[in-house]
Structure formats: structure tokens, C-alpha cells
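Renewal narrative, Specific Aim 1. Our central claim is that a sequence can be written position by position from structural information alone. The example that follows is taken directly from our test logs and has not been curated for this report. It begins with the C-alpha cells describing the chain, in the order in which they were read.
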């Protein structure tokens, strides 16, 4: 079992969700429960910037559903879409911000192979993430992250988020981050990821 000292600290998540989304690329998500240990490296994320972001659940303010998004950073926010698929987010920013990062795609580490983790629904299905993880602390033995070196800017692509056409101008906001050319990165049929990279984003000190 991983030593707690090697987990990503809560301070990692208590930052602007754009930095968190960018820097989760290449980091490994670890789950430990009665179903055993599962590990996967994140290859695609999306940032959600709070109530002003018309694609974010928190745009409707503090509700029973969104209370976790307005809580402290480093906790899982898991919800069901279309009554079928779970999606997992990690709450980010300062408590009260209503910001989070969606996990869009990953690559298996343990076991070394399994069903595709491309897309947030398949990621949760493959890793057996359900509503039981909603509100889970992502800095514990049950759920945590292993650090890895930051990826160089040329290995990262940035583009608009998927499935948020209802969000007006926010639909085109460049808040989706992916490892360039990774086979598990999801995309709309017939549309490539908008090319661009992270050279313009300054990493926090």
C-alpha cells in the first residue's frame, strides 16, 4: 500500500481548477476498497470554474446536489448522467468557489489492462466508481493520487469541453486538457481536439 507521505496533498487541489486540471495529467489515481486496488493514470480532464461558468453544475448556486462543489478542495464529486453513467470530479479551489475538475479519460496501471477508460462514463465504469465515492476524501488510503513529473507543454493539448453546447460562450472556452495523441483521449465523432498547447499557461509557484 502506498505510504501517505506520497499522496498528493490537499493543497494541490486548493488552487485554480485550470492548474489542477492541467497538472493532473500524468498523475495516477488509486482506489482501494472491498473490490481491491485499481490504479489509472489520468490523460484527459476538464476544468469547471464556478457559478459564472455556464457549463458548471454550480451555476445554479448552492443546492443539495452541488454542496460538495462549494466545499473544501480534494473531495470527490460523483454524479449520474442520463440515469446510466457515473462521472467523477475532484473539488478544487477555495471553499465556497464551486469549482471542480472532471476526469475524462485514463490509462490502466493496475491491472495493466482492462476495459477502455476513454470518456468519463467509461472511466467510472472501468474503475468501479459509483455514488458510493461521492464526497470521498481524495487524500486517504481509500482514494488518493500519486505524484509524477509535470508534462512538458508540447505534450499537452487544450481545447473546448465536450457536451456543453448549452453553455453559450462558455461552450467554446479552452478548458479541456489532454495528453497529445494519447489513444484513450475522448473526442466527439468526426471532430479532432482543437490543437493548441499549454505554453501560455503559467504554472503556479
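The sequence written for that structure reads:
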Amino acid at each position: 500500500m502506498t505510504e501517505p507521505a506520497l499522496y498528493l496533498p490537499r493543497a494541490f487541489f486548493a488552487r485554480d481548477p485550470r492548474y489542477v486540471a492541467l497538472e493532473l495529467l500524468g498523475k495516477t489515481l488509486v482506489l482501494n476498497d472491498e473490490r481491491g486496488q485499481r490504479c489509472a493514470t489520468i490523460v484527459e480532464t476538464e476544468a469547471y470554474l464556478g457559478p459564472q461558468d455556464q457549463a458548471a453544475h454550480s451555476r445554479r448556486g448552492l443546492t443539495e446536489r452541488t454542496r460538495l462543489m462549494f466545499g473544501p478542495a480534494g473531495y470527490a464529486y460523483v454524479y449520474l448522467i442520463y440515469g446510466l453513467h457515473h462521472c467523477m470530479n475532484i473539488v478544487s479551489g477555495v471553499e465556497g468557489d464551486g469549482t471542480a475538475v472532471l476526469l475524462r479519460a485514463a490509462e490502466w496501471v493496475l491491472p495493466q489492462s482492462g476495459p477502455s477508460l476513454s470518456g468519463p462514463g467509461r472511466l467510472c465504469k472501468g474503475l468501479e466508481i459509483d455514488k458510493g465515492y461521492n464526497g470521498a476524501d481524495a487524500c486517504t488510503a481509500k482514494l488518493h493520487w500519486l505524484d509524477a513529473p509535470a508534462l512538458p507543454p508540447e505534450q499537452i493539448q487544450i481545447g473546448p469541453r465536450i457536451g456543453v453546447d448549452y453553455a453559450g460562450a462558455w461552450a467554446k472556452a479552452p478548458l479541456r486538457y489532454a495528453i497529445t495523441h494519447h489513444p484513450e483521449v475522448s473526442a466527439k465523432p468526426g471532430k479532432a481536439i482543437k490543437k493548441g498547447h499549454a505554453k501560455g499557461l503559467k504554472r503556479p509557484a
